[in-house]
Amino acid sequence: MTTAAITYSRLRVTDPARWLAAALAWRRWATVAGGLGTDLGPLLSRLRDSWAGSAAEAAAARLVELGRRLTYFQVFCWRADQALSEFAASITRARTLLDQARTAAAGAGLVIDDSGVVRAATAQTGPASGTAQAGRASGTGRAGPASGAGGDPAAVQAVAAVLASALEVAATADASAAARLVALADVPEVPAVSSFPGCDADPAEVRRWWAGFSPAQRDWLLVTDAVSLAGVEGIPVADRDIANRLLLGDHRRALDTMAARGADPDRVRDLREGLDRLSARLADDSGPRAYLVGLGLADEGRAVVALGDPDRAVNVLTHVPGMTSDLRSLGGELTRAERVAVRAGELGPAGSTSAVVWLDYDAPDFLHEAVSPRQAREGAVELRRFQEGLRATHEGEPARQTVLGHSYGSLLVGAATAGGRLAADGVVFVGSPGVGVDSAALLGVPADQVWSTTSRTDVIQLARDPRDLLPGVVLPDALFGTERELWFGRNPSHPSFGGRVFASQAGAGHLGYWDEDRPALDAMARITLGEKP
User: Fold this and answer.
1) Please, what is the Cα angle at 146 between 136 and 99, to 5 degrees?
2) How many CA atoms are closer than 13 Å to the CA of 310, on its beta-carbon side?
């Protein structure tokens, strides 16, 4: 769309799929440029091995410069992809609101004419006819005279309000996308960088440092030093996405090196398979645009992936998976998080929702690891910093931040939240073995924003205090601390915990909470929106 005023008639014929297709085209051009850049490496090596002298050095310098230009081109392609993907997502939400307005109008015996005026349907006007001046986003959804049968003023105003919201969403998206695309015309500049923020710098300090550079200077930094920026909290998500995408080739080469040095072949195979699956999702256009916020090959692989840009979203859900989660199984976690984000968009299209899968900790692989809180406590430190980073990089009014922990991940979320140290407006525990405390009052989040559910068929309920599992056997209380129901404390899905319990289907088991058209999914989406399930 253009920067011209957004009208009802224009929004009605706008197809978000066209903008998604344009975003995907730019994403594919970035892939092509990356492939060409990768081919330059061996070519440069062969040139230096077979040719010497000033001419050879000049040719090598030209190849290096060509490689840098290709990298710049990748960055520009991804920035266009980001802007167009977010624009398409916003137009999809606007069209959802528009459909709601039209459905409500039809049900109330009203029509919306081409100028965006809501009025009673009459034999003269017919369905949605009219040639009056088109309504603009600043005065959209105007309520016309309630003429004719069925012109209830309250119904007219209700439809007009939904229509106004639709056009406002579209107008805001249009202005944002236009500004982001115009900025791509900036000529790359070499910034004067004396030093990077120290390792102990908080995300807000990093954000201020990054904001001190122009957009073109930031692109130069991403092209020349992506490795220093990819994992830094306080760098905006869209920029970290570009940095981490630029490093995907380095991760593949690292796996080749690991294999050549005799690393465990099963681990290398699983990491490679996980990396391939992640790369496929990053190139996919069938769901919300994926942002690669973090990636590492430590342990069984770690990754942080956002679906939709959390820095621009009204609602942000951070999904923390549990035991056996790794890079290879990341796809399943992304599917679960995506279902919550999509459902939230259906239930509350007026505001955008981003879901982040946060797997930046060493999740337990075996039961003997899962019975210890050690890995949860270690991960809690990183989760707190990540959430703090989301606060620091968010644009405009603060987003509603909700953190959801599943299974062992709920223990990690509990450890991060204890004492009010987590930047979150609400927490959700799903299929929890206990969260490390026996009361919602100890979490530092208002009790009415502490939510939990456990299906009757979830095997996690077998993770009980060993004193409950061994009746008649005397075990010293000193080994276990205070009395508790589950392995890591009182069941957060029990009313005595002091939080709020939401319903899940009895047959959910341990992974079925995200099944579509089931109560738990709707509840998680509404909690993400800040609503009561």
Assistant:
1) 50
2) 34
* Separation of alpha carbons 123 and 483, rounded Å: 73
CA distances from 276 to 62, 269, 272, 391 (A): 32, 11, 6, 31
How far apart, in whole angstroms, are the C-alpha atoms of residue 51 and residue 246?
30
CA distance 243 to 197: 17
Q: Give the separation between CA 72 and CA 223, rounded to whole angstroms.
A: 6
Radius of gyration of the chain from Cα atoms?
26
Q: How far is CA 407 from CA 319, 487, 491, 503, in A?
A: 11, 12, 12, 17
CA 243/CA 301 separation, integer angstroms: 18
Phi, psi of 409 (to 5 degrees): -60, -25
Inter-helix orientation angle 237-246/215-224, to 10°: 30
Strand partners, 442: none
pTM of the model: 0.88
pLDDT average, residue stretch 146-175: 82
Say how far apart CA 135 and CA 119 lie, in whole Å. 14
The two tokens of residue 370 are 């899962």
> Which has the minimum average pLDDT: 91-100, 208-217, 233-242, 464-473?
464-473
Q: How many residues does the chain have?
A: 533
Measured distance CA(56)–CA(74) in Å, rounded: 27
CA dihedral 377, 381, 382, 387 (to 10 degrees): 120
Q: Name the strands in the sheet holding 400-406, side by side, starting at the edge strand that comes first in the sequence.
A: 290-296, 302-307, 353-359, 315-320, 400-406, 426-430, 450-453, 500-501
Position with higher pLDDT, 465 vs 66: 66
* Residue spans of alpha helices (H) in 296-443: 330-347, 367-370, 374-393, 408-417
Query: Cβ(379)–Cβ(408) under 8 Å?
Result: no
Task: State the Cα angle at 167 between 162 and 172, rounded to 5°.
Answer: 125
